[in-house]
Amino acid sequence: MPIYLDNPHEYSPRGPDGQGWNRLSLNAHFDTPAHCGLRPIRFASLFEARTGRQHWGGFERCIGSKLASRRVPNASPDTPRVQCGACPVYQNAREHPTLPNWPGQSVLLLGRVRDWPRTPGMWIADAAAGRSSVHLHTWQGQDTGVAVDWPDLAIAAEIRMTWQFQDPDGDAFWIVRLNPGAEQTAVHTKNYRDHTRHVLYAPGARRLAGVKCHGACAHEDWHLRHLAADLADLDDATRANGPAAAPDLPERLPGVPSFALSRDGDTATITHTASRDFDASTMTVSAEVPPSPDVTAALLAHIARVAAW
What we know:
alpha+beta, six-stranded antiparallel β-sheet, 15 strands
């Protein structure tokens, strides 16, 4: 994964296009520092940071300590090298922290991109220009009051994200939690002539749900394990607090066009049209847990995990 991103302006006197530097260019007078591949400032560079595809641009500047100059292939003799291993940004990333202030036991959150307000009295050199944060909302659209920075999302463990989309309220994307109890669940699968049947079990062999897939299964085994872990958490809460009122199931998860949802009694149906990753499929889920907003969130989280990059 590239972390130290040197600026691309190590050009000969003839300039980057071979035509020389004797033309007016505001960029010639601006600083072009090295960037840190762990500090994205927007969704596109967040994707690069989490998939190891970083290149200069779209990141905050490097704050690491520079070593003494040394010769490296294809570089000028005075090109500095950066000791990323001693940088606190790198050391923090190696700890694989969780996302700060994740609201409660939520399994699915909507991240809305909010631009920073302009700094009073600043014009061209406003440090806030082009910067933004991600405000976390519930899947019903309620603001949790928690905002996170792009670098926190870049290094956070136990989450996945869908592609960014736009709606009347601006840019947004879904952030889904990976359940740490997924490895302790079990999924039993049996193939029939016209469908595939999965049975989800909690630790201790307690049955949680029956799943039928007609057509190709639009998921992988680990997706069902995380769904089982989410339902196991809800089953424990239901036993302690009693069932909650069942909400209306949304027809779609905004920004995820390949999936549609419906409910018939206690059975939920997830319809998946053919996509890049999976063929068309119809999946029915009959959970042992009574319908509730949290069960709906678990189903939506399953969709978000399947649709995540």
